[in-house]
Amino acid sequence: MGLVKALLLGVLSWIGCVAAGEVGITDKSILIGMTAPFSGPSGPYGLDMKMVINAYFRQVNEAGGIHGRRIELRALDDGYETERTLTNTRTLIAQDQVFALLASYGSSPTTAAMNEVFGVAKVPLVGTISGAESLRQSPRENPNNRYMFNVRASYANETEAIVNQLTSLGFKNIAVFYQNDGFGRSGLEGVAAALKKHNQVPSAVATVERNSFDVGPAVQTIAKVNPQAVIMVTLYKASAAFVREMRKARQNPQFMTLSPVGADLLVQELGDEARGIGISQVMPYPWNDTIPLVHEYQKLLGKQAKPSYYGVEAYAMAKVLVDAIRKSGKDLTREKLVASLESMQNHDLGGYRISYSPSDRLGSRFVDLTVIGSGGRVLR
Question: How far apart are CA 138 and CA 93, in angstroms?
């Protein structure tokens, strides 16, 4: 009799959970999870993103929420470390019971979290600061990719734009300085593939560990070939250290780097020495308020902070998620959210478009090339 009673209680409990609705959803709220670096060398990136997302969620809530529900953010600091990202993702899904995930950070951390945690748990993630190909496979190639929705272009798109620009100027001696992780290796592969199309190979390759600024060995390796250009697949502190040490070694190539570097933070770190560094960007120019997405972002930001590429990207990610939740209707489930995202083809966020389908998780191919001018201003 005790066993029957226990089974009955279990069934009643399950029915109660079904009646209450999807995990992370109540009659009044939708809980969204985020893991990103809020401390350490990459902390400024994550803090900028979190600030923008919270501001946008407040704006949505003040306007009545989504089908009458408030949208809330639960954000955890991972310090740009893969193991902490995995722990945070497990905590957000199993303990905090978030409905979906938003705005992750980093190629290696996000790929590991997708394959080991959120993909397995069938919890969608909208947006990550990564252009890695591992996050852009078709769900047919990797079923876990079904729950990864990218909002930015790939590193292959960025590196091809950079290489095409350099080769069009006649550069034939192009070296690569990369971060030794998923981000750096993906960028290195992209550079090599793009150079191959021009019958070239990198003239030198050197690396630095993630969250390290020990660039001395890399400078020695790359300086030996006297490169015309160096493509840096690194974040702002390592990039700044490398540029300084190269110039001390009387090397003055054209330095190019990818969007994750964060133009404003690179300028802050290097000051006037940042002038002339080229950066590929995957978001619209944050200071051009004629673009509706940027105008909305600037208005949202007000006087809280200065516009940035990271900020406008966080705003784009949050808009994609909110638009998809609205499209899913009041009877919200994770599978309905996935279906709504997959139906977003050529979806206009306001002068910036993203596209998904059941077999496509690329999101965007938009790349813009910029350069740091005098006074640290980013110029197109």
Answer: 24
Return the SS3 of 248: helix
pLDDT at res. 304? 86
Which residue in the block uniquely carries the two structure tokens 């978001």?
A: 283
Is residue 66 within 8 A of residue 32, CB to CB? The reply is: no
When pLDDT is cut at 50, 70 and 90, the band that residue 12 belongs to is very low
Residues 6 and 141 in one domain: yes
Q: Does 374 fall in a domain? A: no
The domain tally of the chain equals 2
Q: Are 260 and 317 in contact (CB under 8 A)?
A: no
Query: Residue 132: what residue type?
Result: A
Are the CB atoms for 77 and 46 separated by under 8 Å? yes
3-state secondary structure (DSSP) of residue 318: helix
Average pLDDT, the chain: 94
Residue 31 token pair: 């809980």
* Among 99, 91, 103, 94, residue whose Cα is nearest residue 37: 103
Q: Which pTM value belongs to this model?
A: 0.91
